[in-house]
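Hi L.,

You mentioned the student needs an example of a multi-chain input paired with its predicted structure. This one should do, with 228 residues in total across all chains.
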Amino acid sequence: AQSVTQPDIHITVSEGASLELRCNYSYGATPYLFWYVQSPGQGLQLLLKYFSGDTLVQGIKGFEAEFKRSQSSFNLRKPSVHWSDAAEYFCAVGMDSNYQLIWGAGTKLIIKP
Amino acid sequence: DAGVIQSPRHEVTEMGQEVTLRCKPISGHNSLFWYRQTMMRGLELLIYFNNNVPIDDSGMPEDRFSAKMPNASFSTLKIQPSEPRDSAVYFCASTLGQVYNSPLHFGNGTRLTVT
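Structure written out for the whole complex:
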């Protein structure tokens, strides 16, 4: 069965440091991959997505993600985090239907001043 | 663009009471989703509407849950009777077309507490 794993429940990073959030998926076909961010008390917002082509995709707010088929991974990165990046980050995979997404459990990012 | 609007933001009710959550999607969007978020189960799709028609309600937990979309600008999720295990944050999201081509736009959610 299709699944998405975000192995880190929470991550603490110092402001200005680099960030990498991990996402692994299990899916038989070419996946549609997404990263969404949820700020406290708000809904989710799309950061970036991958469908095909260049495996390094750029998103909003300075985030990027790299699709690695051999590792079934789609890790999210940012070279230098800001305090405003403190939020929960969700990885999602598109299934065969055109509306169903499988969501990871989320990774909560904590920024140290 | 006001975004997806949900009301109320918070709802506290007693077990057995009826609860109605409301959603106004972004104008022009033809797909609407109701999600439930809990610590234990994460984000779960409850129901999906396309052009006001329910397409997939397999995620609705049980008959106590019902959802309607009488027109393109309004949807409700009703729980009757409510139970403590229904306590969660309920999100409405909308998009134009397929979620693979167009991002989901989420409302700020309704935090439901059933005592």
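You could point out the following to them. The CA atoms of residues 6 and 108 of chain B lie 7 Å apart. The mean pLDDT of chain B is 95.

Best wishes,
N.
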